UniProtKB/TrEMBL annotation:
Keyword annotations: Magnesium, Metal-binding, Transferase
Name by which UniProt lists this protein: Isoprenyl transferase
EC number, as in UniProt: 2.5.1.-
EC top class named in words: transferase
Cofactor: Mg(2+)
HAMAP family the UniProt entry points to: ISPT
A GO term, aspect molecular function: magnesium ion binding
Biological process (GO), any one: polyprenol biosynthetic process
Catalytic center residues: D33, N81
Family: Belongs to the UPP synthase family. Z-FPP synthase subfamily.
Amino acid sequence: MNLRDLVYGLYARRVERRLDLSQGPKHIGVILDGNRRWAKAAGGTTEQGHRAGADKIAEVLGWSEETGVEIVTLWLLSTDNLDRPAEELGPLLGIIEDTVRGLAETGRWRVHHVGARDLLPERTQRVIKEAERDTEGISGILVNVAIGYGGRQEIADAVRSLLHEQAGRGTTIEDLAEILDVEHISEHLYTRGQPDPDLVIRTSGEQRLSGFMLWQSAHSEYYFCEVFWPAFRKVDYLRALRDYAARHRRYGA
């Protein structure tokens, strides 16, 4: 361990000791940004960047266990990413599939997919389905893997699902318009039944949500971190929790 790592380790322990975990977030959303830029800066390939980013996930979930987080939503692939060239998308999907399998194989976390599954290749769909099945009874952190996910797509899918449900009950459009409220939409989101994220973390210095959990993040706190995702350290994670604990949540007020 070099001197820099030692200093960061000591600082991380200091921050952790001062955290009031009773005031910490229970659901964290993470936008895993910066894999390609990290690889470019390191002289590596895009695939190596995505591999390094995937390797970081289990580490972050371990920190989440230590700090009392109950749900972590990881944005692994957006609907926009599905339009990438085949030579880039193919390896990326392979990395994501390996990641999902790895999460399930630990036996520590329950895997749940959020996203438009029908837009994904059959192989990817099968890997996700198997991971959900194999981890269904696990009581550890619920890990939402956002794959083929877009916030607008989710809301459109929720409305479509709601319309199908109400049509099956014989409800007319006019009748639905009279009773429709936000809860009707919430009950058809990919995360239905889950609490909304308390904290959304985005790495790489970008300060925007890019469509991540548009509906659910209405009252979330945001934390933007300069470091690229593969280089995200425990001290960065703890700083995000410290920043969250210091805020007075107004829930839109």
